[in-house]
Design goal:
The chain is mainly α. It is built from four helices and no strands.
Amino acid sequence: MSDSEALEWALQEARAAVDPGGSPAPQVSDRVARAGAAAIEGLRSCEARPAWRLQMPGVADPLREARHDVRAAAQAVLGQLELIGLAWTSWDAEAQAAVLGELEESCRELADEAARFTREAG
């Protein structure tokens, strides 16, 4: 499973958790969907580039740090989506709002890192 496929799966789980059949707050599901879709799009744009693939060990790799930063940001988003999928219903409204804000911020960070990788990859 690619990193973007893992994000897609976790996004589906998170959306199901925040909207278990007609939630009174559909805007929450929309926010999760928008944030997740942006994260997936940014990661896929990186995965589609030949420069995304790792270089052979011992070979100079000028994109190593940028690639790592994208993957680290993607892992943060993945963790948050998985946590939402697992625990959303056990949190009070304040905790839900905090986690949703953190997810959106992490997705922005992933988009920024993906854009940096794309610029550096040329």
